[in-house]
Amino acid sequence: MWVLKEQGAAFDHHEGPVSEAGLRVDGGEPGLQEQAFDGCEDCLTLNFPSAADGRGFSYARRARRERGEGFRIIATGNLMPDQARMAFQCGFSEIHLDDELVSRHGKEAWRRATDVAPDQLYTKSGKAPSIWDERHRHRVKIQSLTAAEAFGALQESTNAVLLDVRTTAEWQFVGRPAFERSVGIQWQTFPYGAANLSFLEEVSEAGLTQETPIFVLCRSGVRSLAAAEALKEAGYKDLTNVSDGFEGAKNASGRRGLLNGWKAANLPWNQD
Amino acid sequence: MANALPTRAVLTANDVRSGDIVFWSADGSWTTDINNALISQGTETAETLLSRGQAEEAANRVVGTYLVALRPEDSAEPVPLKLREIRRLAGPSVPVPAAGTETRHAA
Amino acid sequence: MYAYDTHDQAFVEDRAREFRDQVERRLTGQLSEEEFRPLRLQNGLYLQLHAYMLRIAIPYGELNSTQLRKLGYIADTYDKGYGHFTTRQNIQFNWPKLVDTPDILDHLASVQMHAIQTSGNCIRNVTSDPFAGVAADEFVDPRPVSELLRQWSMLHPEFAFLPRKFKFAVTGAAEDRAAMKFHDIGIWAKTDDSGHPVFDLYVGGGQGRTPRVAKPFEPAVALPDLLPLLDAMLRVYNLHGRRDNKYKARIKILVEELGLENYRDEVRAELAGMDTAPFQSAVDEYERIHAQFEAAQPVMEPGESLDLSTASASLQAWVGQNVAAHRVPGWAVVQISVKPKGGIPGDVTGTQMLALADLADAFSAGELRITHRQNVVFPYVRAGDLPGLFKGLQDIGLAEDNIGEASDIIACPGLDYCGLATARSIPVAQELSTMLRAREATDALGPISLNISGCINACGHHHAANIGILGLNKAEKENYQITLGGRSDENATVGEVLGPGFDRDQVPAAIGRVLDTYLSLRSGADERFPDTYARVGKAPFKEAVYVGA
């Protein structure tokens, strides 16, 4: 019998069966016998009749809530390594494995299965923070301003930077804003639109710090928002998306540069 | 499940790697052509075939082995009894568009 | 549309890596087929009648042109050059190899797609209104809450091994275009007096061998309460849903056996003891997602509608039939029929996918939707672009002007592909489509839904159709039962079986007699099929179909 604990904390072999204290709950048909659960003192053992029977996960979630931390909740029976993570996230504290399950799947598979990256799930499950919590923690509001508003704010500021994330081709053929503190760093690269994997590096190399007010600009406000989101995640705190971008939206005849955006607002720009 | 083994049958499965339909052949390997399949006569050989199938599954070569009951007529051509097996053998009854058009895509 | 951030991207990449490892362990035998099955199913990989089948998630049916090009690439590179749009707004490929699947998942991850939870006994891909964000009758854009549900349900550790599959549909408009009441949980988004989104929940709908219309569970649930409530609803189901009989394992049976009131009491008791702290960030998250959809929406300046007076008859007919009202004047919601006369419902070739992607770039801001009726929607078309789009669609054989007509048939893959099917669906759909297109040219039948399933599991939604066809195996011969009077909209109704089934070659004539009866009995050209059926009942149809035969 093997005993697996959370996050690879322990994975030990015990000669013979491990004593399973407390109440044993078997997944009989058609239901679990929940009334028996109330008589249990300090430990609960849930038997998984098959890997496909996931009742134990909900049962453990409820038991953990009712009994608090410190109470032992043990999973036994037929689990796969791929379910170990789920078991711990649902409140199990231990998984007891028959030797056969360990030798067939391999010790490595079991150990690896409990390596949960801290932000791997969207909602909070178990001890690790969730993706949503991570996003919440890093929540910086990205301001949204039109090109005209942004230009006004840039002029008033002493250190705000205009970050143009369009492609080299757009700078060359469409033009660039004429503003002293501008930096051009592609978000996607020309000509295939592949993500610029060194975007964040280049931003930092350009001397922009997490405190620098950054106004992000692209053609029409979509790429720049994605870039601003990436900057936000990287810890930049003062971000503004130029919502209509350099060329703005297409007009009724499909042309940009007339309806809104930097050019249409008659803000200064030039061409290389 | 197998309380009534078919008297005339072939052993079928899907190749685990490709998913292709395969049949157990007389030369002791899997074939994609039912005409090369080993045909069991009588329940005893059917049982042998079934246990062969289980061994092959355990060896992770194929998945989902079972016996396809054939029409009892003494014809050379193996023809399944059941509608499902007839359709499985025949493939989609509508033409499948041609494959091999990768050249249109940028790598 | 929603764009992945680094978390979303890492999530799908990790999942693809994990599946690659699982495939390797399967091939070396560390994982038995019995263990591997739920793992591959949760990554969309089935073993079907002929081969493996990979079902790829199209969350709430929304795609961009880059993603569609990638699907075309997969069709041509790893499959036999075509794919099939499903009644869950997904796409499936019929011939992938197991050994190629990890590469396919990597390709999908590179364009922010995945195949997670498109199968298996877990929370499936969420479906929604294909007109989301542009419908003239919309209260609330259903996409932000659908995306919230996608994230909430992804690898939810508690709900990956439910008694049975679990399907959500979300709609936010007056007309239900998502068949919300035929889902395990249906969500109808509305707004409260102060303009905040609230959600009416329905539970226990479904099709299969026991079709049920979902029952009202809780009205006007506020956003902060939504996910805790769903967690509680699923937990009670996971603990008490039946596992002894797969045909009685869906939540509809639990709700029926317990009684709606008892089920509701159990859920409320669970909710009362629940710690809702883990859901605190969900409201922020909804706002983040909502802002993304807003930002990505193209700017649509109101414009003129299209003057069709000098247009060709074919363009006029196509616009009249396939274009739906847009919330912005001068813009059009274009429904592209994937039901060509005599064709296979929902099948598109790799070539067509690439061409559709180009058309979406040219005429729909690079975005499109897949509908649960197996068609495609372009949501952002300028009225003035309709002729150009029509021409482009004619070039690729997707300009059939039959949206909403009887020939706009839903059909499951049936016994041409599916391992569970009892009869073929596709050849029946093809024959009916040819017959119906001829009739639609002369008779003004009006909108009629005609759906075909190749077995009792009802993937072809026959129960929910005005005219449903169910393919069965009767003594090793294909046999087709007709149901009448079903509907999948906000007045959802399960169709009634008309009588004994028919051989395949008798089906078109029988359907012809059903249509004759409707035409002769309807109170006027504007009385729809299910309304006529509800008024006159089964008898006259039965008599016409069986006695007249």
Textual characterization of the structure:
The complex is a heterotrimer of chains A (272), B (107) and C (549). Chain A is α/β, with parallel strands linked by helices and 272 residues long. Helix content of chain A is 28%, strand content 18%. Chain A has helices at 55-67, 81-89, 99-105, 107-113, 131-137, 147-156, 168-173, 199-205, 223-233, and strands at residues 2-5, 11-13, 23-26, 43-48, 72-77, 94-97, 143-145, 161-164, 176-177, 182-184, 214-217, 239-242, 269-270. Chain A has a six-stranded mixed sheet. A five-stranded parallel sheet of chain A has the order 7-12-11-8-10. Chain A is elongated and about 80 Å long. In chain A, 39% of the residues are buried. Chain B is an alpha+beta fold. In chain B, a hairpin with a 5-residue loop joins strand 2 and strand 3. In chain C, strands 16, 17, 18, 19, 20 and 21 form a six-stranded mixed sheet that branches. In chain C, helix 1 packs antiparallel against helix 2 and helix 5 (143-153) crosses helix 9. Classes of the chains: A alpha/beta (272), B alpha+beta (107), C alpha+beta (549). Chains A and C meet through helix 1, helix 2, helix 5 and helix 9 of A and helix 1, helix 2, helix 6 and helix 9 of C.
